[in-house]
Amino acid sequence: MKRFLLLFCCVGFCLTTASDALATHVRAGEITTRRISSTALTYEITLTVYYDVTRGAGGGYQAALSQRDVNFCFGVGQEMRRVPRVDAETRNINPNTTINIYRTTYTYPGPGTYEISCTIVNRNEGTRNIPNSIETNFKLRTTIVVNSGLGLNSTPVLLNPPLDSARVGQKWCHNPAAFDADGDSLAYRLYVPSGKQYEADDASCSPLPVAGYTNPATIGRNPTTEAGTGPATLTVNPITGDVCWDAPAEQGQYNIAFIVEEWRDGVKIGEIVRDVQIIVTPSINKRPELKVPDEICVEAGTLINEAITAIDPDGNRLELTGYGGPFNKGADGTTLNLVANPTATLTPSGIQNSPLTGTFRWQTNCAHVREEPYDVIFRVIDFPHATQTQLATLGSFRIRVYAPKPQNLTARPTADAAGRAIALSWSAYTCGTTAPPANAQMVIYRKEGCTTLTPDVCETGVPAGSGYVEVGRVPIGQTNFTDNNKGGGLARGVAYSYRIVVQYPRPGNGQSVVSEEACITLPEQVPLITHVTVDSTDAARGVITVRWTRPPGINPNDGTGPYQYRLLRATGLNGTDFTQIAAINTTLQASAADTVFTDRGLNTVANAYRYRVEFYITDPVSGQLQRLDATENASSVRLTATPGMRRVQLNWQARTPWSNDNRVHRIYRSKTGPNGPFNRIAEVTVQGPDTYTYTDTGADAYAADETVPATMSTDSNYCYRVETAGQYTPPLSATLLYNFSQGVCATPIDTTRPCPPVLSIDQIDCASLSDDALCNQPTFTNTLTWQSPSTGSCDRNVVKYNLYYTPCQDSEPQLLATIDAATLTYRHENLTSMAGCYQITAVSRSGQESAPSNRVCKDNCPFFGMPNVFTPNGDGKNDVFQPLRCPRFVESAELTIINRWGMKVYENSGEGLRWDGKTNREQDLPGGIYFYQVRVKFKRLDCSAPAEVYKGWVEMLRESGGTN
Question: How far apart are CA 947 and CA 937, in angstroms?
């Protein structure tokens, strides 16, 4: 229960201000919106402003009347619109206050966040916590998220008008009675009022905080709380919206502001600002006392009938009013459509003698169900002598309306395509005389094991931590649901508990109390697989033994025999490629032993295998076999071994219908091979999937079969297998089930690296080559040889070499080839250039790579020469000027010809080094002496080496033509 103590100023007792020509007498206001089109982003925007009219038509009333329109900004650039007042005349909501309403529509261009603002020129003069308030405008803003996914969303509406004034030394509180018709959550925080000095109402669309604003709780000499226990405070309750000033120290007028935030699914989708003016006066009148009910929660359909009592210490007469969504009344007393009929009532109305008892009455129904509670605000004012200040007290309580719980939930076993299912049914859902929304849903929950729930009073939905998980939803009109574990089938012999909850859609988004439990165990009508154990590990001749029990729920004399098992197998722990591998007829006599099948010819080295047994009965009518059910899939145990530093890490897993958790698993080791013989070395208690692991460091902790420790040498191979222990959930079976993994081997590794080899390359003596050496040779080969050092403290267990190569001496070598350890030479063939550098590393059996060897490099032997005479006479002999036979390792060349007078007569690049005695324009040049320059870029080990320049002369001989 909350109580707020306030004052309301009578005419003639409130403070007056000067400069009525400029002051607007705006006491409070806010902007609200609602989307009005389901096909366009069109919103109705409403500005509500309260005016103080205590000085009659010549003061505040005239200011309210003359404010015929207000400038609206919509948050789209600087777009503004002048919006007229809804009513031609002002409307009084009490003798001292009028309400002005301005409304327009606006269509937004697209999704986004928009800030709507409105401005009224000039606040009242003399506002003590706003410097030069009469020259400061009154700005309001509201922020909305425009998004079609939010539906026809609206901001909350503030149903309690800010009418009450404050008294010096007494705590003042206000609650806006905010109500959100969409059922969104609301939160509250303080805010600095907006406004700018000397700014017209159409000057800017950007609300700025009032310059020099002062928290009113700090004004006065040593302001304290009403109880005198500490400094005065101005606070807002972020959940309830109670705005309290405890307590004013000096009389005067003050302005504060607060924000109402709107949240949906954890995301803020809007906020509105209410700016409030508080008039503080001295008073000798004693305030009335008000008592409201504590917070309540009721099932939809309940009639709420609560007494609201008030008494005045001075014996003054009283008036009690109520605010909030259930009343369907706006702040100005007009009728709104906030909640479904019937609306709440508060009787009697009008002025009554003290003590006063009012009756709050509300007949709830299914249309009132919602997740958020309803806030109901009550206000009692007294009517003292005309010379005294009228006082008011506020109180509130919250009402939560939840949906009735579903009734008569039952469960029975059934079969569908998955083979194992449970059919649920319940009574048609009703909510008194009001039907639930058509798009409400029934939500189905399941958990393993029967359980008793004792939800807290008014706790809706499935209690957190109860272990139930949602398994399905159906329309509210449906009264049945079949649970087959989403096609995977349910387990036989397991008790399943079900409960259902009604989920309402938005705007209420409320729930019902959880239903009573329906608990059922599927009867065992299929065998139980008990063993999938690997007997032999081999890539082609592996063996797995599969064992299963007879179906305990089948009577062999019920006339449905003969019976048949069909065994199916898939490859992999999670394999789905099941194929039938056996069909076994059985009589199901009680004395019959478990069925055992030995599966041979498997690759148990590379694969785990998964098995399923299908159980067939004989149809008494047709005499044909038909499948009754199938076991859950069960896989072999899959073991992996990862070498470590003188250790081996083991990990294993299995996919079985029984649980291997919280059991002791056995570890075996062998130095012979993956099929043993094995020696048990450890027993490991596993808790869950992440604990199916064991690290072998060579110890043997199991002495019952002889202790055989190992040195964990990097020269040795160690083989392992694991034996798991598991059990079905009782009462299916109390027997422990033991199954072996395949055998797997690994060799520990060491941190010691191999020694780097010593590398050499076949070199070539360029000086000894003749000019025509290597002529017309298209490819070349570099031969490399190496050897490992015979000394040094390094790993000698080399299994391969990595050879690295780069054609340029300044580049980092890249991997060229990986060579077996038995080979100590390599021919690098099909090269167009012999230039290149090489390094080699050794790699040990444990995967350690040595440091790089010495770096060996080889360069080309370039050659280039030009003749000194040619005869371009067309006889096919010596007709062109070109390099001598076999230039070697030329990458590119440029030729320039100059005559004896220094003029360039020909140049060639990229088209072959040939000059036929003509200009570049194909004009014959005369015979004679010419000079040439050739820039040649060779393929060299130094890839960045500059081009070399060759200069000389050549004589061109022609049969006629003179000299040049």
Answer: 4
Query: Where do the H-state alpha helices sit in 271-419?
Result: none
Cα(324)–Cα(302) distance, integer angstroms = 19
The residue behind tokens 């007078």 is 901
Scan for tokens 């030995």, then name that residue.
598
398/386 same-domain check: yes
Residues 6+ apart with CB under 8 A from 275: 28, 29, 30, 138, 140, 193, 194, 255, 256, 257
Residues 6+ apart with CB under 8 A from 665: 652, 683, 684, 685, 686, 692, 722, 723, 724, 725
Q: How far apart are CA 35 and CA 33, in angstroms?
A: 7
Tell me if 941 sits within 8 A of 859, measured CB to CB: yes
Three-state DSSP state, 234? strand
**In which residue are the tokens 């059991």 written?**
663
948-956 and 869-870 strand pairing: parallel
Say if pTM beats, i.e. exceeds, 0.90: no
CB 154 within 8 Å of CB 46? no
What residues pair up with 329 in beta bridges, in sequence order? 335
CATH code at 880? 2.60.40
The two three-digit tokens of residue 749, written as one number: 């590794």
Q: What is the pLDDT of residues 728-780, one digit of tens each?
A: 887 677 789 999 999 999 988 877 788 899 999 999 888 888 877 888 788 99
Tens digit of each residue's pLDDT (9 = 90 or more) over 48-70: 999 887 644 445 677 778 889 99
d(CA 323, CA 883): 107
Residue 959, pLDDT > 80, answer no
Tokens encoding 362: 């509300």
In a domain, 230, yes or no: no
Tens digits of residue pLDDT in 538-556: 999 999 999 999 887 777 7
Residue range 216-237: mean pLDDT, rounded: 95
DSSP letters, 156-202, are: -EE-S----BEETTS-EEE---EE-TT--EEEEEEEPPB--BT--TT
Backbone angles phi, psi at 217, to 5 degrees: -70, -15
> What do you get for the CA distance between the two ends of the chain, in Å?
120
* Residue 798 Cα distances to 244, 785, 786, 825, 847, angstroms: 83, 16, 14, 15, 9
Assess whether 670 and 531 both reside in one domain.
no
CATH number at residue 832: 2.60.40.10
Is 243 a member of any domain?
Answer: no
Which tens digits make up the pLDDT trace of 571-600? 999 999 999 999 999 888 767 778 999 999
Judge whether 694 and 721 are in contact, CB under 8 Å.
no
Q: Are residues 152 and 19 in the same domain?
A: yes
The C-alpha atoms of residue 162 and residue 606 are separated, in whole angstroms, by: 79
Tell me if 220 is assigned to some domain.
no
Q: Are 866 and 932 in contact (CB under 8 A)?
A: yes
The boundaries of the domain holding residue 335 are 289-402
Query: Left (φ > 0), alpha (ψ -120 to 50) or beta: where does 133 sit?
Result: alpha
